[in-house]
Amino acid sequence: MKDLRGSATGVVAASVQECVRFFQAVDGYPAWHPDVVRKADVLERDGDGNPTKARGLLHVAVGPLVKDFNPILAITVDGTRTVKLKRVPNDPGDSERFEVTWHLQEGEATRIRLQLEASLSVPRFVPVGGIGDSMAQGFVSAATRALGSPHAQA
Known about the structure:
Elements: E1 2-12, H1 16-24, H2 29-32, E2 37-45, E3 51-62, E4 65-69, E5 72-78, E6 82-87, E7 97-105, E8 110-120, H3 131-147, H4 150-153
Antiparallel strand pairs: 1-8, 2-3, 3-4, 3-5, 5-6, 6-7, 7-8
């Protein structure tokens, strides 16, 4: 197992509420970040129709690491400013982890911060330094393009 950690920030023109809906709607991720999120199917929804569980097809190609993952993700919204996507283990002995947490801060424009944490089965000889930050930055850059830069709205 290799541990990956990364973070990235960005600023968007969309409101915090729009960002929560955007990041919670995992079935939309392939439209705005198709290089990594190849597919996302909602498996369960809550009483309001919001996704709570989804299956994704993630393609990771950063430096020497090229791998496809097909996780089931639990989607939770904590309050009105945090959306978390967390891999559901296949069985009790499954130690792989993959978590993406979007933190949102309201202001003149909305600041987004993504934290990525993973523990994945990759070959021992594959160096993973910096891959987490690179993946996080890719997600934030794609989200910023999709949600709109506050400077483009001026």
